[in-house]
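Retro notes, item 3 of 5
We never archived the inputs for the D-ribose complex last cycle. Fixing that now. Sequence and ligand:
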Amino acid sequence: MKVILASDHGGVSLRKEVAQVLNELEVEVEDIGCDCEGSVDYPDYAIPAAERVANGEFDKAILICGTGIGMSISANKVKGIRAALVHDLFTAKVTREHNNSNVLCMGERVIGPGLAREIARTWVSTNFEAGRHERRVSKIAEYENK
Ligand code: RB5
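Structure as it came back at the time:
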């Protein structure tokens, strides 16, 4: 599995925690920053990362900002992206099983490093259940392709 990882200035510490988890899971990771001292704009990271998932270069992306909201709004503008904003273990699991989410967004100002690490571990390790959920996810793609 190949995962692209990014954050704005509000998510740098959590991004480093998540990078460690991905390394432990032996996931291939490209970390595109930010390497920021000052503030940057989350769409400048979310959109390129999401595009590289949508074009098949990466299987998934993990995007972190202060709240995770800016990253998720931006990533979901990219056709083919199903970005989930997750701050608990239940939805980390279920968004993979039911929504086949291909982008995980978290907020560093919302949760601590321990929970973020477990969310990343759960999300990366959980498979899509397909079945009835396939039909629902397909309806999103049909709308995008209208
Ligand atoms: C940056 O201050 C902050 O707005 C950003 O990290 C994020 O929380 C936006 O959704």
